Amino acid sequence: MSRSFDVIVVGNGVLANATARALTLQESGLRVAVVGPGARPRAATVAAGAMLGCFGEVTTTLLKTDIGRTKVDLAYQATRLWPDWVEGLNAGLAPEDRVSIRKGTYVINNNMSGVIEDANYAAIRQTLAKYEEPYEEVDPGHIPGLDPADDCRPQRALFIPNEGTVDSGALLRAYTASAQRDERITLVDDTVTALKLEGSALVGVTTASGATLSAGKVVLAAGVDTQAVLDQHPDLARRIPRVFPGGGCSIVLESEVAAPAGVIRTPNRAFACGLHAVHRGDKRVYVGATNHVVSRPFEKPVANNVLFLLECALDQLNRAYAYHSTQMVAMHAGNRPVPIDGCPIIGDTSLQGLFIVTGTYRDGLHLSPLIAQDLARRMFGKPVRHERLFQLFKPERRPLAMRTREEAVEDAVLHYAAVGYEHGMNIPRVGWHRTFARMYRNVANSIYDALESEHVMPPEFLPMIDNDREKWIPFFREYLRGLTQA
Questions:
Q1: Nearest-CA neighbor of 407 among 166, 99, 64, 70?
Q2: C-beta of residue 166 within 8 angstroms of C-beta of residue 99
Q3: CA-CA distance, 225 to 302, in Å (whole number)?
Q4: Angle at 244 between CA 241 and CA 247, to 5 degrees
Q5: Which helix (H) or strand (E) holds 413?
Q6: Per-residue pLDDT tens digits of the chain, which is 486 residues long
Q7: Beta strands 32-35 and 185-188: pairing type?
Q8: Is the distance from CB of 83 to CB of 90 less than 8 angstroms?
Q9: Is 0.90 topped by the overall pTM?
Q10: Which residues touch 200 (CB under 8 Å, ≥6 apart)?
């Protein structure tokens, strides 16, 4: 079976759907296929808290480099696009299919993860001041929906009125409903397995069902599954930073306790985006999320991740969740696409007609209106609003440097200690905090030594490598050596 389109978008998460919508808005006569399994077994979106904001994600690391500051600025610009983007998406939908933005984010500093949380809280305040973004310091004891255990009380908090959230599930349903009403968009419940080439020309894709879909332009926007497609084309894949799953889990609780009005979150910590509670209904709260760079995507919730989130919810968010009236109504697993340099992979490739949108890590949903609209313009030769996006994060590149090795090691020590503290680690107060830091500093240095590369991989990769050095040291050493020789 063969069908023809003008553009094929590989993937059916938020970035893929946003790209399809932006394409039809940009070029009214386009026929666009959005190809992905309806169940989305490995997608990031299904497990996402869908926080819409750049300031809550700011870290000290981001502010140190031009790359990091560019990421912050793009996120800031994306925040401003969301109201109009949602209004346009809703315009053609029935009331029950529409999505809404809930504004208001509380950032709490409860110091449950060591000093890294304090540093990132300060970085958030610094960036709010730089952008002259409205915010206010608030009494953490008066945040609606927050009632932690006595020994988990935050000592300070701030409120950002213009940051908020959407319901990720509702957003996906809105995109689906919009596409079903648009005769230019075809939803294909299938999995793309490879690009289809005739000689050196891109002519479409092949799928797991044996179908061939033809198009002169293809957008790979399948999150972590993008790598599986690229692996079928090694000459191209070796020029693009490799993408790994950032596996994570989230839960939804239903309780007699009033849900937060918008978002309550900590700064980023413990190799993750911090603990966060997000409104999912008057009596429902989303709690997330965990993050582990892994070799294979999470397809189902992981027991120890779910246990950890429950403990965090009961201790750090609201002790009333311990009552028998609280039920866990959903558990989700998802996979963020994490490149080996931690930076997005956005834009056109040397294979004419092929475009890639992946590697957005924790920022894909938030950045989706910005990326989708600029990519649609670029694909058809129109001026883009954020040229830096395509210059800095072009797919075919050497891995970018976000840290020196020394900075990466120190970040790894702080994040690893934060993991320990969040899991109840209690270090004897006889200088063992120095011993712990020295021990993990030695672990991190030994990994970077063994990799024998000038490229400094993000600290998030170190636990995976350390857990199976026999497998990963040779793998990454060879991979990184290949980049040097390319």
A1: 64
A2: yes
A3: 20
A4: 150
A5: helix 405-422
A6: 679 999 999 999 999 999 999 999 999 999 999 999 999 998 998 889 999 989 999 999 999 999 999 999 999 999 999 999 999 999 989 999 999 999 999 999 998 999 999 999 999 999 999 999 999 999 999 999 999 999 999 999 999 999 999 999 999 999 999 999 999 999 999 999 999 999 989 999 999 999 999 999 999 999 999 999 999 999 999 999 999 999 999 999 999 988 899 999 999 999 998 999 999 988 999 999 899 999 999 999 999 999 999 999 999 999 999 988 899 999 999 999 999 999 999 999 999 999 999 999 999 999 999 999 999 999 999 999 999 999 999 999 999 999 999 999 999 999 999 999 999 999 998 999 999 999 999 999 999 999 999 999 999 999 999 999 999 999 999 999 987 554
A7: parallel
A8: no
A9: yes
A10: 351
Q: Which of 265, 250, 263, 246 is nearest to 120 (CA)?
A: 265
Q: Rounded CA gap, 346 and 362, in Å?
A: 15
What residue has token string 């190799």?
A: 271
The pair of structure tokens assigned to 473 is 């040291």
| Residue length of the chain | 486
d(CA 451, CA 472): 9
How many alpha carbons fall within 13 Å on the CB side of residue 74? 30
Q: How many whole angstroms separate alpha carbon 356 and alpha carbon 75?
A: 19
Q: Which residue has the tokens 């990454």?
A: 476
Round the CA-based radius of gyration of the chain to a whole number and report it.
22
